[in-house]
Each structure stands twice: as C-alpha cells, then as structure tokens.
D-alanine--D-alanine ligase (Niveibacterium umoris), 306 residues
Amino acid sequence: MSDVIQFGKVAVMMGGNSAEREISLISGKAVLEALRSEGVDAHAFDPAINPIWDLRKEGFDRAFMILHGRFGEDGTLQGALETLGVPYTGSGVMASAISMDKWRTKLVWLAAGVPTPRFRMLTPDTDFAGVIAELGLPLIIKPAREGSSIGVTRVNTPAQFADAFALAYRLDPLVIAEEFVAGQELTAAVLGDRGLPLVRIEAPEGKYDYENKYFTDVVRYHCPSGVRADTEDAIRAAALKAFQVLGCRGWGRADVILRNDGSFAFLEMNTAPGMTSHSLVPIAARAAGLSFEDLCVEVLKGAALG
C-alpha cells in the first residue's frame, strides 16, 4: 500500500487521435480498473478531449501511457509530458519515436546485429517489378508508422502490388515492402530488464490481422510457446537487446518470426503494448507469475522523466 500512496494521482492516458483509438480506449479501461482495484488513485485522461496541460492543472503526479499509435506512442506526448514535468510509463521521446517508425527501427537493428527481414522503401516512382525481383513473392507491404496491422497487405501476385502500396500510402508516405518470412509467429515481451516467456500465436490461415487481433476468438495463444528451450532463450535474449539498442525502457513487446531452420527475425517493437482481453503482454506476464493487476502496478512503478 505504501507504493500505491507514493504513486499519487495517476492519469491513465487513453484514446487519443490515432487510428488505434478504439483499442487504446479498451486497453485504458482495463488498466484503469486494475490500478483502482489495487488502491491507486487513477483517473481516465483522453488527450483528444482534454488539453494536455490539464494534467498539471488537475494535480496529476504521473501518467500511465496506454495510447497506441501516432500522437501517443511516437514520442509526441512523451515530449509534452517532459515539458510539464509529469513522469510517465514506457519509453522516452527518442525511443518512442524510433520504435514507432518501422524503417528507422530496422536501421538501428541492422547496425546492432539484430536480425530483421530484408526490405525496400517504396515511393510512387518505385519500380515495383524490381522490388518483387529482389524480395520475391509473397511479400508484405505496410505503412512504416501505423500499428495493429492497419494498412498491412500480403502481396501474393504482381497484380496486387499497386493496390497494396496505395492503401499503405494513404496512411503514411513512408511505406515498406518487406520479404515474407514463413514460420511461427511469436511475441517477446520485455518488462524492465528481463524478457518474459514467449507467446506463440496461431491464427487461422496465418491471418493475425486487426479484426482477429481484437474482435474474434479464433486466434489461439500458446504460453509456454512450445519452442525449444535453447531457441526460446536465444530469442528472449535477442529481444532484450532489440529493446535496449532502441533506447526503450519500462516495458515493450517485440514481434518475431521463427523460421523452420531455427533462425528468427524481428519485425517491430511496440512501446505501449495492448492491454485488452486478447493482448499478449498480460499472457506472458501471467506465465511469469504476474497477474494483470500486478503487471499494471509494475509498469506504473517505472514511470520516469528523461
């Protein structure tokens, strides 16, 4: 209870203006209820409705960041909170901005020796046939700065390429074409300085898309993952490295593909992971002995500036 008292008045930052607003509101409600159940003086705060300076005016002592996507997970609000002097959970300005940008994340990872799929950046003038020749088919086209699989298309034939690019480009002028990596879809959560147990995702026909992530019960989640112990250890260690070289702190979640030959590739880093009933970090935390409420309190303890 002493820890709870030290937290003071807590703003659970949810909603926002991104394409992931709906999911953020669901995550935020779950976090809010969990913190209140532990005696935390927690309140909902939606920066799409309330001016950010109200945090200071209303006497908030720290913020739990559960905003997903742009204008919340990309360093924008982190910078505002730094200016206001309100400690917040999760990664700081630089790490949030880089991690939200899948292109720049890849550049950091490649420089640090973290495995990630081959890719090409696309513009309206790109020779699409040349990209297909280089990366092969199928391939994945996605906006660089969206989450929750929004705007992501698996391209199986050359005829699908232009429409897939147009969809991603409408969402973000930074568009990535990425080689398709066949294998087991895993997620590697990090809490503080430790990697949590891997979660293996089994989606129908491999469609782990926006709808199946949040609004159906057809996806199966396996934790323990069933991955060989030495391979799991290697992925968890690599995930911690992937997290640290981006400058991340507090908590996060890396998406990983494990190939049939035992090698693996990291797709992206999430610095404000989902906390819905279908979310992955709570599954991993539970396998590590942490309840949802324990997880929320542990994340809140890490709130900081700078």
